[in-house]
Design brief:
alpha+beta, 6 helices, single chain, six-stranded antiparallel beta barrel, Pnp Oxidase, Chain A
Length: 249
């Protein structure tokens, strides 16, 4: 019986030594400390909302991370996660942002246009042409379409043009887009401004005569544009860059 007890004690001691050795090796690999992997890091950072700005004393972090990975965040439908990027990372000068928007929209570009009336949104695809001087976009639309009727009741619109990597398309994993908020106006073909705006649009399929019978013009004054470019991150700039009209042209 004594021999059995002594044997069990020796086995227990040997197991404890192995455990200590294993712990020591793990600690040595971590530079003397047990460091959890990034994915296992606890969310112990201070709570923030979308108005937060990154302190110059902020600890280092991977540029691909978002604030929500570490901070409990309070957001709403107006102050969004995008605002955290805009507030916390480097911003381009206003004129530089517009130059990039202008370069991204060189001609007739396909947008998704969102309109809304009576709490019923509508999203449609439509070609817009940018007037880079006035910061206004123009499109021609079939008379009587749902989007035009909604705009007559609610001129606030949102529109986005996008290009970049997709699962189906493959290629380089980079993305660009411009998201526009603006005030839209439906210009009737019988109005005095119709032909002037039509010349800005550059018709392709229709003659002017047919366009006057069939189309109205949609004129969108750009109030705010958010330019997104995933490549900006490599330069330390926010991938989201904002241009706002304000009191400036």
């Amino acid at each position: 019986m004594k021999k059995l007890f002594r044997y069990l004690m020796i086995c227990s001691a040997f197991g404890l030594v192995l455990l200590i050795i294993q712990y020591g090796i793990s600690a040595e690999k971590a530079g003397g400390l047990i460091k959890p992997a990034k994915a296992e890091t606890k969310r112990e950072a201070m709570p923030i909302d979308a108005s937060a700005k990154m302190s110059p004393k902020h600890p280092e972090y991977d540029l691909s991370m978002t604030c929500a990975e570490c901070h409990p965040t309070t957001l709403d439908a107006i102050s969004t996660a995008t605002a955290l990027y805009i507030n916390s990372l480097k911003r381009l000068e206003r004129d530089e942002v517009w130059k990039r928007i202008e370069a991204f929209l060189p001609g007739r570009e396909r947008f998704v246009l969102a309109t809304s009336y009576g709490n019923r949104p509508t999203a449609t695809t439509i070609d817009f042409v940018l007037d880079p001087v006035e910061k206004v976009s123009y499109a021609v639309c079939e008379k009587g379409t749902q989007k035009l009727e909604q705009i007559k009741e609610n001129p606030a619109v949102s529109m986005v043009c996008y290009e970049g990597w997709t699962v189906a398309g493959g290629g380089k994993k980079q993305w660009k887009s411009v998201q526009i908020e603006g005030r839209a106006e439906v210009v009737d073909s019988n109005g005095p401004r119709f032909e002037t705006y039509l010349d800005k649009y550059h018709l392709v399929r229709l003659s002017k005569e047919r366009a006057k019978k069939r189309m109205d013009i949609l004129r969108v004054v750009i109030e705010k544009a958010i330019f997104f470019d995933s490549a900006l991150l490599k330069s330390g700039f926010s991938v989201y860059q904002v241009w706002e009209r304000g009191n400036n042209p």
